[in-house]
Amino acid sequence: ENEHKRNNTQELTQMKTTNSNKIKVKIQIHATKLKNVAGAFKGTSDPFAVVTLLAAGHNEQPIVLGKTEVIKNTLNPTWTKIFPLDYSLGKLRYINVGVYDKKSPNEKPMGSAMFEIGDILGLAGNVKGKRLPKGGSLYVRVTEMTEDAGELRNTIVGSIANTFAGIGLTDLDNIDENENDTTLKLKLRGVKLKNVEGFMRKSDPFYEISKRIHVPGGGVGWRVHYRSDHIKNNLNPAWEESEIDLRELCDDGNLDGPILFSVFDHERSGRHTPMGSFETTVNALINASVHGGGDDTSKAFTLKKGGKAYGLIVVVEASSPSLPSSSPPDAAPSVVPVPFPDVDTERHQPQNPPAAYAPPAAIDNVMSSLPPPIPPPAFAPPMHSSPHAQNPFYMDQKQHHQRPTFIDYISGSCALQMCIAIDFTGSNGDPRKYGTLHYKHQDGQLNDYEKAIVGVGSILEKYDFDKKFPVWGFGAKYGGVIQHCFQVGHKQEADGVKGVLDAYRSVFRNPLTMSGPTVFADCIAQAASRARREQAEAQQRGTQAYTVLLLLTDGSVTDIGMTKSAIMAASDAPLSIVIIGVGKADFSAMQFLDDFSTDRDIVQFVEFDAHKYNKASLTSETLDEIPDQLVKYFYSRGIMPTAMLSESQVNIQVEDFND
Prior knowledge:
19% of the residues lie in helices and 26% in strands. The protein is an alpha+beta fold. Strands 22-19-17-25-26-27 form a six-stranded mixed sheet, with helices on both faces. Strands 4-1-8-7-28 form a five-stranded mixed sheet. The radius of gyration is 30 Å and the shape is elongated.
């Protein structure tokens, strides 16, 4: 029977891997202070990296995502190769990054480290470092890779407006909607470059294009984005056409952002000699294109080194399918923005609200006193009155044409905050008896409540900046009074998932009466009040907050009408509610939670036993709807993601080596 359950769960897991909440992300890598393993009298190592997606289950195999280019003679490589990967909130994705020396015999390893994608996405700047056992540190950054060019095209349209005929906006209709290619096709040639090779030899020029980055302390620096091939013995090189991804080169699609163009004389030693550089923008490159007229130097850029001219760079061609292919009209036509969804300005109330709930006689078990109950939350008005509410994140429709994604929000400043509510009704059984749902195993094995807390909580805590979670209980009584929302543990907030488990277990060291009925409404109201307050406070700080209530129960809710009213009242809050049914009760009556419709769907019900043998299946099913719920809440209110911090604007977390 157990084997049959496992097989069914595995099939369900495979089905879940096709869910619509997959987001394509890109992985970028660099390293610092690597140990030189080239060997005596062989100079400095030539490092490259191999990225492998590790198997997530017994039926999967590791997948090599690819390897970077080789960078010669450096112990501080910044590789330009990127690696795309599908990611979804509820699935752990581990990668291994191994660094090797191309110069040494048999490509000697320089170190490797394992990273979890969700860990990186939950950090400021979306970057994480790990120390390598042989020396040095390896850094991985994960950001979203937009698959279609729609958003960038719209940004490009505004950015290139001043490049064409001085108009204010470019007609969106001038862009071929069938073209999803946002690469810049760039063809360059050099004219009379200064020879830096020495007597009787000529330079072997290649060029690099770098993007500006912020340096801690307020300065700026440059990071190489593209590197061309070198051309031997030529001071008038005509480089092959290159394709440069504008999404990578231009932060926020800004074609007027500064880029650095540098030319070097290639040396086999890797100690390439500078031949000059200049600072420019993508728009300037486009404007300087001579459209194939390679002999025209009227728009050429001058390479400079030490204040002296070192030759010219001619832009033979600079174009992209995402840019207008012809000159724009004399007058800018109007652009019709994509409207935001309608937003109800008042909280939706049921037509026939149920009467106040009066609990029946308690179902006593054994036990007596708990921490004092949490008082009912004071009424908090909805977070907005219209899409034009005054808040620092509102963006007018004319400024944004593409719906943001979940990654956009959490890569900015949005924290996912979790609160947990646990069922202590008498139907759970005496926790001192083996086989009951709250039983504490002496061998350290987790009961089903604990498994659900660890499985879901370990995912969500990655996206919570302070990792402090309130834990509440319901369905117990003390002092003869039933309580439907009381504090679990001795602190208002538990420290991480481990703190949640400690708080949960501490309840049974106090005398209490496990009672009934099963009422969710008070905990839902408490979570909604907290979610509104946290978002309001975050907004004042220039950040964002979204709350997930994880509610664990062993049975169906007693009063469906009261629960519906509580969900309706909470639907205006930045809140998702995940309800996990624990145990072997008949949860068919809970189907109303999935069928129940409000202005915004905020509830997901999952039966724990259906995923008991597969943690990945549980977390995937439980968290599947949260990304869309979060995006719909903020976007429908005109609240856009905040800008993601650049890698150099944050103190990068560097962990010690682990296997």
